[in-house]
């Protein structure tokens, strides 16, 4: 799985929310870790955090 594809999938899971989606996100991150290492996982998490924060700000405004 490419990092771009993983990022795309994580965004979908975050938008849907819920317990099943959290488990799906964990599986995506485990797959990324296997293929690209922990550093790539950390970068994806940081990127998703910043993206979600920006989306939240836009909704509030």
How would you portray this structure in words?
By secondary structure, the protein is mostly helical. The protein has one domain (3-60). Helices cover 90% and strands 0% of the residues. The chain contains three helices and no strands. The protein has helices at 3-16, 19-36, 38-60. The longest helix has 23 residues, at 38-60. It is globular and about 25 Å long.
Sketch the topology as an H/E string, one letter per element: HHH
Which descriptor suits the 3D outline?
globular
Total strand segments: 0
N-to-C span: 35 Å
How would a textbook summarize the main sheet? none
The amount of helix comes to over 70%
- Beta-strand percentage range: under 5%
Supply the number of helical segments: 3
Q: Could you report the average pLDDT, rounded to the nearest whole number?
A: 80
Residue ranges: pLDDT <50 for 5 or more in a row? 53-61
Overall structural domain count: 1
> SS-based structural class?
mainly alpha
Q: Specify Rg, calculated over alpha carbons.
A: 12 Å
SSE diagram, text form:
Elements: H1 3-16, H2 19-36, H3 38-60
Helix pairs in contact: 1-2, 1-3, 2-3
Key phrases:
single chain, 61 residues, mainly alpha, 3 helices, disordered C terminus
TL;DR?
With 61 residues, the protein is mainly alpha-helical.
């Amino acid at each position: 799985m490419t990092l771009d594809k993983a990022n795309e999938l994580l965004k979908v899971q975050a938008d849907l929310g819920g317990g099943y989606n959290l488990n799906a996100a964990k599986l995506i991150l485990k797959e990324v870790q296997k293929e690209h290492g922990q550093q790539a996982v950390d970068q994806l998490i940081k990127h998703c955090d910043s993206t979600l924060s920006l989306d939240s700000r836009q909704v509030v405004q």
